[in-house]
């Protein structure tokens, strides 16, 4: 043990008395000794041991103050230390860092005391080098931490049930108990060979994001610690990570993460390398031999756990497969097991339910017991050839139940072999296809046949048309497509109900089938539309047309015979459109469109007739279709305008105006209402158009409230039948009035006779409801429709409007003049106002005034004009006193 002296004052005096003994002790001491002047802090002497320890010469110490020499160059700390020595007379520092002349750091234990010698106060400082001891202590501490980490890892291995949980606890143990800076586990991607982080913990884990590490020697990122550890299947230690050439690609990340040294250890699963366990320390040379051994042991334990996980999963899967096999044997499929000679050994309950055979009845026999006789010997020969070659066969087969019923089965046979490859058993599973076959037939029927009439539907019709095209082209004969539409079918449905309508469709389908030849097709397209394909007509078009006409006449006669529909006798008729084709490259849809066009020609000709396709009519229909397309976008694109035609009294004073809609198309220009109003009614677009007209008219009246010239004007608005008969029409009108805060007395609805008489009871209810809200009513085009005289007294009408067709013939056609007089007289007698439209001459106006009609509308007073022109005319008339 090195000599360490801290002498007491008497001992020191005695030694000084014996100078040679003191000098020998001073020179040979195994601790550094430094003598200081207690007053000046100058160094009086140093011994050789201190000179060797710190590397400075004797002369570099002597005469200098304590803080003027290298080891004590921190001026502040050295002065504080000296001040403590002066004050207390002694000092002790158990771990004092000093710097040698070469720049190395040493840890020392510093002990001092003050003595008086020959009247001089001297401080003796004993300095012991404890660097090795401290290093050993640190090593022991690191090892202890790693033992703790290993202990925690073993606990995790015992308690964890999956890899993810284990990986996290291992990484946490390495950092929290092993005092590592960071730890992570990376797994090898089988396709790219990249090492991808599976789990990480500690400081700097963000540096693992997008990190490039590979197990592939060809990769530039495959030559670092992890890549080498994986390829060479050995641990790799990088004791100075920041200066190791192998770690260059990752040193920037290491600097940010504070990684000074690393350890990379391969991990295995059942002997196969799957990844690496990597740890980073915060100081260099952190992994000595003992630490390395501990980490290798930890990696081995982790690999053992991974193998156990895999084996446990395999064991559980095997158990699950056994359970599944047991359940599968009692599955919904029939199962039969035979020996190699095809003798039945076992069946399940499903087999008994399917075939009717119990185990007692069939075990010991062969499956030939169930043969239906439908398969040929060649079928069974081919089946066994495949089974012998592949040890597997599956296919559809017909079997016979115990009760003799023949049924379809889906049979799967698997040969079971022993370790020598010899067949020991055959396992057959049987799936009864009876229900599937029935469902398949039902699905086919739904897919290709109309469920109501059992006729082919559109899908099957298209297929047969394509076959007809091909046959017609091949044999050069004509064929015909008939498009049949029942006349007035909607009226029957609406008045008698859909059940009666369905009965008619079924009866018509039956009669159509009776009218055509074998090989022809009758199909239902939908609703009351039927299609007939006539095949193998003459090669000559005229003769083919004559053949078609004969069959069509037969169809019209058959449909025209009375139908007894649930005790209700109904007389029907049909319109038939016909198109002939022969060796023509025409699409199916085009052919149907041609026949449809011809059918509409038959409708327009008075119904209960037939027409052949006329190309000129197709042009008209295409034009109409284009107009319909434009009409559908007109409202959204703000293409409609309101025009106003004044209604005046006999003095010429403007009482109001009729609101008339105009369509200003960007390409077509001004489209006539005669073109687009009927189309709007057919397509249902009249409803949004009607709402728009009412909305805009009310908005205009609201604007006029502030104009003294226009505030009392009434607007007449035409209401179409579809619009009026909407269930919520009254509520729509009320809400429109409420939105505009409008006086409803200024609104007059013009209704046609046909509208009024269609569901008269509903009409009366709605008119009274609207009348209670202040709306006035005018019957438009009076006298041109059905006679409505018996209903006039029931309707809350304010005005009758004489149609312009009568006004136009005043003075020209005596009967029309009489009708005009009659309408005026009847209106006056019923207390109604009367207005004449289409007044174009002064003679017409004078005749009307003479017979009591004092309100007029027509070009004599002004054409329909935009609101700006109407307001200008209103101002002009006011200026002229009218």
| Low-confidence residue ranges | 1-5
CATH superfamily descriptor of the largest domain: EAL domain
Name the shape in a single word: elongated
Highest-level CATH class of the largest domain: Alpha Beta
CATH architecture level-2 label of the largest domain: Alpha-Beta Barrel
Task: Give the strand content.
Answer: 15-25%
Widest β-sheet, arrangement of strands:
23-24-26-27-28-29-30-31
Overall average pLDDT: 86
Helix percentage range: 40-55%
| Number of H- or I-type helical stretches | 30
Decide which structural class fits the backbone: alpha+beta
Q: Major beta sheet, specifics? A: 8 strands, mixed, barrel
The first-to-last residue Cα distance is 140 Å
Give a description of the structure.
It holds the Pfam family GAF_2. It is a single chain. With 882 residues, the protein is α+β, with helices and mostly antiparallel strands. The protein contains 30 helices and 32 strands. The protein has five domains: 121 residues, 2-Layer Sandwich (Beta-Lactamase); 178 residues, 2-Layer Sandwich (Beta-Lactamase); 99 residues, PAS domain (Beta-Lactamase, 2-Layer Sandwich), CATH 3.30.450; 165 residues, Alpha-Beta Plaits (2-Layer Sandwich); 249 residues, TIM Barrel (Alpha-Beta Barrel), CATH 3.20.20. Strand 9 and strand 10 form a beta hairpin.
